[in-house]
Amino acid sequence: MDQDPDGYKRGKSPLHTKSYLFAVRIIKMYQYLVENKRCYDIAHQVVRSGTSIGASVREAEFAQSPQDFVHKLSISLKEANETDYWLHLLSDTGFIDGKMFESMSSDCNELIAILISSIKTSKQRYNK
């Protein structure tokens, strides 16, 4: 197996890779917000939810059942949706510019789409 960006042996799952790289970007945005904008409260919220997406995806790897797998991906989906909320709030209050918002929001929405698709596919498989 090839190495994923996070240094662990994993398959080439786009969800694993994209959620990890998104978490890296979220942490860098958090650092920017805290150092340059002094935006501590919202920065803390977005870093918590934005990094939780990938953590829940990783948890799903060792799910105890197909239902548990879907449950863990559903938690990841909720965290992605919350992250999207914080990104909109940061943009609408001027803490991040339009370019940063568009880039981060696009990545977040891509994760949301992948998660929705994965959840639907998993539910179809175990409902057969």
List keywords for this structure.
128 residues; mainly alpha; 4 helices; 0% strand
In short:
Helix content is 79%, strand content 0%. The protein has helices spanning 14-37, 40-60, 66-92, 98-126.
Give a verbal description of the structure.
It is built from four helices and no strands. It is mainly α and 128 residues long. Helix 1 runs antiparallel to helix 4 and helix 3 runs antiparallel to helix 4. The longest helix has 29 residues. The radius of gyration is 15 Å and the shape is elongated. The mean pLDDT is 92.
Itemize the secondary structure elements and their pairings.
Layout: H1 14-37, H2 40-60, H3 66-92, H4 98-126
Low-confidence segments: none
Number of helices: 4
Largest sheet: none
Query: Structural class of the secondary elements?
Result: mainly alpha
Oligomer: single chain
Report the principal-axis shape.
elongated
Secondary-structure element pattern, one letter each = HHHH
C-alpha Rg (nearest Å): 15 Å
Mean pLDDT: 92
The CA-CA distance between the termini, in Å, is 31 Å
* Helical proportion, percent range: over 70%
